Amino acid sequence: AEVSTQSTGDTRDFIDDDPTGNKAIWDRGLLNGASQKLDMLCMFHIGECVSYLDLATLIPGGSEALVYTTLSGTIGMFVPFTSREDIDFFQHLEMHMRNDSAPICGRDHLTYRSSYIPVKGTVDGDLCEIYNSLDPAKRRAIASELDRLPGEVSKKLEDMRTTFAF
């Protein structure tokens, strides 16, 4: 399972005060708990063991994304949305794709991505990309539910892909 977290402001201040980290070794939190805590931002089951994780920019002038590789060779990335409109659009597209596209292995998509803990704060881009391979009638039906033309939906998917990767 993949968990993306963010340190709290207190932790960042603590690191600024002690960049060597020596103080953190001996510091104890409340009741011998961890002295630095992380906030849960999103949850997403990748399905494989992640072997490398890095914050990277894949194209010159592009935005940063969290890139990962797995033991079996999969390369994936977590990209941030820039606007609330994009979040709403891709969440609705993902919802329609879950309902309208047949599961590949007979397993419900949401059940798979929530294998260990419920999906939180993410949109599955791989599932959204299946939109372009649907038959034209289904693409028109989904686009009409999103109040867009099929070409606009495909363009939005392409724009998201080219902003971060290729």
In short:
The protein is an alpha+beta fold and 166 residues long. The chain has helices at residues 9-17, 22-26, 84-100, 109-113, 125-129, 136-145, 150-164; strands at 2-7, 38-44, 50-56, 65-70, 75-78.
Summarize the topology.
Layout: E1 2-7, H1 9-17, H2 22-26, E2 38-44, E3 50-56, E4 65-70, E5 75-78, H3 84-100, H4 109-113, H5 125-129, H6 136-145, H7 150-164
Antiparallel strand pairs: 1-2, 3-4, 4-5
Structure description:
This protein has 166 residues and is an alpha+beta fold. 40% of the residues lie in helices and 18% in strands. It has a three-stranded antiparallel β-sheet, with no helix packed on it. A two-stranded antiparallel sheet has the order 1-2. Strand 3 and strand 4 form a beta hairpin. The longest helix has 17 residues.
Structural class: alpha+beta
pLDDT averaged residue by residue: 81
> Largest sheet, if any?
3 strands, antiparallel
The end-to-end span amounts to: 26 Å
Order of helices and strands: EHHEEEEHHHHH
Q: Give the % helix.
A: 25-40%
Number of helices: 7
Number of strands: 5
What would you report as the Rg, rounded to the nearest angstrom?
Answer: 19 Å
Strand arrangement across the biggest beta sheet = 3-4-5
| Share of residues in strands | 15-25%
